[in-house]
Structures are given as structure tokens and as C-alpha cells.
Amino acid sequence: MEVGSISKKEKRYHLAGWLLFLVCAIFFIAQSLTDNNILGLSGSVIFLAGCIAFLVPLVGNWHK
User: Fold this and answer.
1) Residue 58 CB partners (closer than 8 Å, separation 6+)
2) If 0-12 CB within 10 Å is exposed, 13-18 middle and 19+ buried, where does residue 23 land?
3) Percent of the chain clearing pLDDT 90 (strictly above)
4) Quick one: three-class SS letters along the chain?
């Protein structure tokens, strides 16, 4: 499904979901830093980058 073809309401739900994932990624990063867990930190940073990658087309096509 193309981002431009979904309803505004559905876009808001997608945005809210991805923002919650971003918050989780930040908490995972904080926890990994607290525990000095390099593997967890690496995974958390990759997870954060993936969340941002999914947000780019959603936010970029917001007004379509």
C-alpha cells in the first residue's frame, strides 16, 4: 500500500505507533548505556534507525 493512498486518520495511527516505537528505542538505549551493554546498545541504535526510516515516508507524504 502506498503511503499517499491511506486516510488521514490511519496516518495518525501509524504516526502515533511509530512515535511510541521511537520512545521505546530511546529507553532501550538508556538501559543499555546504564548496564554498559554494547550489544544491547548496538541493537537499540539499529532499532531507532529503523523506526526513523519508516517515519520518513509517512511524514514526507503527510499532506497527500
Assistant:
1) 3, 11, 14, 15, 18
2) exposed
3) 67
4) CCHHHCCHHHHHHHHHHHHHHHHHHHHHHHHHHHCCCHHHHHHHHHHHHHHHHHHHHHHHCCCC
Amino acid at 46: I
Residue range 13-42, pLDDT digits in tens: 999 999 999 999 999 999 999 999 999 999
pTM: 0.80
Report d(CA 40, CA 26) in Å as an integer.
12
